[in-house]
């Protein structure tokens, strides 16, 4: 039996109204990939923040290599060999890779030495990255490599990764797993948070499951089915989404040869994009992040004005209408970035209902807000989407990532939209909640809504969408019925084979 690298004994941390971690104990061994599982709000982020010195436990102890470990801040944790790659990268777009890495170091070496070190680590660990490239030009996978290399330069003994594969292509996931395996062969331990259970079964040696802040057990993922792990997290069985029979209705939303410049320097311009979205269908748009997804959502939601005639809702040209005017016509949208875009972090859930629901739910009248009604609407969303929070007056920033996602998607769906555009609807959401959101989208389509789902999760799109297209460098592939597509054809569409022939059934 290997001596534990890190032992955690009875860690407890409470926030107002919620115990995020309660008496959590487990060990992490050198050279293992240890998964930390749990549904949204189970306390995973809180636990790793305590290990990384960002949050101080109320009680409990930790030992690193047998010595008491009480990191007072992240730099203290880093000095003792603990590194962390966050879900949200903290990089400056306008700086180079090497400059970004230097910013994270307490005493950076001269730039040439650092660039050489980055090249060396990048080659040793199979993470291709040029230190002189500007970060704004990098893909999500390459940005993540900057963060990983930044960590590896500190030669960590424990590397914590928070949902590292949610932004990666399948090929990038394979590269990352190779790197992690090399690290573990050198004795580094990896603490790995993810909701992707099949990946955990492939990669991880052990998994510890948190449920409502408590450790409910450790299992061997290779010997446990994904469904069994999901049920351990939730404490009960849950239903997987069931496809419905579809009969698409009339065309509702039509985008006609839209070309539009990206609003930001590092965005992607849309090139000659045409699509028709019908009542009662889900149209899935796949593709690797950064290929025009944000711009497409912005053009459809009204945040990015386009030529008036390029976008029509039924027969009405709406290209220049702002988001609120589109909502008045029944078109709602939920963007990918939940903090700061879909929701205002410092405002309460009740206040956040006003952002998109003021008119549709009659939450304001001649400029006066109707608070009881807004609160009632927030409570309805919380109940319908099982948002774990002490109540509607909680600030958005206090919600766990997955619970905020449930709130944002639930808020738009609760308006009973006629046309709904969503980007990454289940990003960071646990298996049971993802199944719930997917089922809710299918039910809404079955009631006649026209739904466009942009997602990087191909399995999700194959499961819920009736037709599928892929975005690549701002161009949209042809649109095909999902049921007729093979994985290989989908890969080709994502790679930019726009005029491939697909057998229609
Ligand atoms: N700063 C904070 N203030 C108040 N409550 C908080 C704070 N941070 C976390 N919480 C609460 O603690 C609980 C655990 O949250 P945590 O972020 O650790 O969950 P998680 O398992 O990482 O969830 P997810 O998978 O959704 O990211 C949640 O109920 C959350 O609302």
From TrEMBL:
It is a peripheral membrane protein. InterPro entries: AAA+_ATPase, ABC_carbohydrate_import_ATPase, ABC_transporter-like_ATP-bd, ABC_transporter-like_CS, P-loop_NTPase. It comes from the Bacteria. Residues 6-237, 253-498 form the ABC transporter domain. One of its GO terms (molecular function) is ATP hydrolysis activity. Transmembrane segments: none annotated. It is found in: Cell membrane. The keyword DNA-binding does not apply. GO terms for cellular component: plasma membrane. SUPFAM superfamilies: P-loop containing nucleoside triphosphate hydrolases. Keywords: ATP-binding, Cell membrane, Membrane, Nucleotide-binding, Repeat, Sugar transport, Translocase, Transport. The keyword Repeat applies. This is ABC transporter. It comes from Roseovarius atlanticus.
């Amino acid at each position: 039996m290997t001596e534990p690298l890190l032992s955690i004994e009875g860690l407890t941390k409470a926030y107002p109204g919620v115990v995020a971690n309660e008496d959590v104990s487990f060990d992490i061994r050198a050279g293992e990939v240890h998964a930390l599982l749990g549904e949204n709000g189970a306390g995973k982020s809180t636990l790793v923040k305590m290990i990384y010195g960002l949050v101080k436990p109320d009680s409990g102890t930790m030992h690193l290599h047998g010595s008491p470990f009480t990191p007072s801040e992240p730099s203290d944790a880093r000095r003792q060999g603990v590194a962390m790659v966050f879900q949200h990268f903290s990089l400056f777009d306008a700086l180079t890779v090497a400059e970004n890495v230097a910013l994270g170091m307490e005493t950076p070496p001269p730039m040439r030495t650092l660039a050489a070190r980055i090249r060396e680590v990048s080659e040793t660990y199979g993470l291709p990255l040029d230190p002189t490239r500007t970060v704004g030009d990098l893909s999500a996978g390459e940005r993540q490599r900057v963060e990983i290399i930044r960590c590896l330069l500190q030669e960590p003994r424990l590397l914590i990764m928070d949902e590292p594969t949610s932004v990666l292509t399948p090929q990038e996931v394979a590269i990352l797993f190779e790197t992690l395996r090399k690290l573990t062969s050198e004795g580094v331990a990896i603490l790995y948070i993810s909701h992707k259970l099949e990946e955990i079964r492939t990669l991880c040696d052990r998994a510890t499951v948190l449920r409502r802040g408590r450790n409910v057990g450790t299992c061997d993922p290779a010997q446990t089915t994904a469904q069994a792990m999901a049920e351990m997290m939730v404490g009960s069985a849950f239903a997987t989404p069931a496809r419905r029979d579809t009969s698409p209705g009339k065309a509702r939303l039509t985008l006609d040869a839209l070309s539009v410049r990206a609003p930001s320097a590092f965005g992607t311009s849309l090139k000659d994009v045409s699509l028709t979205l019908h009542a009662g269908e889900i149209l899935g748009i796949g593709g690797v992040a950064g290929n025009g997804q944000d711009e497409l959502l912005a053009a459809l939601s009204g945040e990015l004005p386009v030529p008036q005639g390029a976008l029509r809702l039924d027969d009405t040209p709406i290209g220049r209408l702002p988001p609120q005017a589109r909502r008045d016509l029944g078109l709602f949208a939920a963007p990918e970035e939940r903090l700061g875009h879909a929701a205002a972090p410092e405002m309460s859930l009740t206040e956040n209902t006003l952002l998109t629901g003021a008119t549709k739910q009659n939450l304001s009248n001649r400029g006066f807000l109707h608070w009881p009604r807004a609160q009632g609407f927030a409570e309805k969303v919380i109940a319908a989407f099982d948002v774990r929070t002490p109540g509607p007056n909680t600030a958005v920033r206090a919600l766990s990532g997955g619970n905020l996602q449930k709130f944002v998607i639930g808020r738009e769906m609760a308006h009973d939209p006629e046309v709904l555009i969503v980007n990454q609807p289940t990003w960071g959401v646990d298996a049971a909640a993802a199944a719930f959101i997917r089922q809710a989208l299918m039910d809404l389509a079955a009631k006649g809504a026209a739904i466009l789902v942009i997602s990087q999760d191909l399995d999700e799109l194959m499961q819920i969408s009736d037709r599928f297209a892929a975005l690549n460098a701002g161009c949209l592939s042809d649109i095909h019925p999902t049921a007729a597509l093979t994985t290989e054809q989908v890969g080709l569409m994502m790679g930019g084979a726009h005029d491939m022939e697909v057998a229609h059934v």
